C-alpha cells in the first residue's frame, strides 16, 4: 500500500534558489522511499517538490482550486493527478486530512495556516494521528516562540517533530510509515 505525504511550503521560491533545491531534494527522497507526494500543485515549493518526485519516478498529486484557476494559475508540469476543489477552504482541508504524513517547509501565510490547521486537528483528534514534520531552523524558532508566549502543553508540542533537513524528515517517515528500505533504518 502506497502512502501519501502532503508537503506544505511557500509559492515564492524560484528554480536555483536554496529553498527550491531543498524542496526538490525532499520530493526526490520521498519518491525514492516509495511515497506518493501531494502538494498544493502550483509554483515555488510545490513545483520543486513535484519536480523532485517526478524526476525520481514518483507519483505527484496536485491539489488545486478553482479560485486560483480563475486567476490563470495552472498546475505545475510535474503533477500527474489533479484533485480540484471549488475553494481554498476545501483544498486546505483535503491537503491536511487526506494523507498519511505531513511535512512543512519554509513558507508564508498559507503554509502557516496549513500547519496551524493540521496541528489543531491532531491536538483535538479531529483526524487520526500521523507523522507531522516541520523542516528547517525557522520552524524551530516559530514553535519555540509560540510555545513561550502561549498556552501550548508539552503533549501538544509532542504532536510535531522538528528536523533540520529533508533527509531527516524522510528517514522519520520511513520509520513511522514504512516505505522502501525502512527495515534498514530500524
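Q: What amino acid sequence fits the structure above?
A:
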Amino acid at each position: 500500500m502506497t502512502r501519501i505525504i502532503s508537503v506544505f511550503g511557500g509559492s515564492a521560491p524560484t528554480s536555483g534558489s536554496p529553498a527550491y533545491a531543498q524542496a526538490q531534494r525532499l520530493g526526490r527522497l520521498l519518491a525514492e522511499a516509495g511515497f506518493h507526494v501531494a502538494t498544493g500543485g502550483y509554483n515555488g515549493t510545490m513545483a520543486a517538490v513535484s519536480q523532485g518526485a517526478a524526476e525520481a519516478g514518483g507519483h505527484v498529486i496536485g491539489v488545486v482550486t478553482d479560485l486560483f484557476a480563475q486567476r490563470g494559475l495552472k498546475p505545475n508540469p510535474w503533477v500527474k493527478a489533479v484533485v480540484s476543489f471549488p475553494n481554498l477552504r476545501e483544498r486546505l482541508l483535503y491537503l491536511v486530512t487526506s494523507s498519511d504524513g505531513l511535512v512543512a517547509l519554509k513558507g508564508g501565510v498559507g503554509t502557516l495556516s496549513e500547519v496551524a490547521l493540521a496541528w489543531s486537528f491532531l491536538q483535538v483528534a479531529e483526524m487520526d494521528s500521523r507523522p507531522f514534520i516541520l523542516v528547517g531552523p525557522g520552524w524551530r524558532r516559530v514553535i519555540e516562540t509560540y510555545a513561550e508566549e502561549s498556552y501550548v502543553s508539552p503533549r501538544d508540542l509532542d504532536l510535531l517533530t522538528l528536523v533540520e533537513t529533508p533527509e531527516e524528515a524522510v528517514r522519520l517517515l520511513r520509520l513511522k510509515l514504512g516505505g522502501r528500505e525502512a527495515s534498514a533504518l530500524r
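Q: And what stands out in the fold?
A: Residues 3 and 178 are 9 Å apart (CA to CA).
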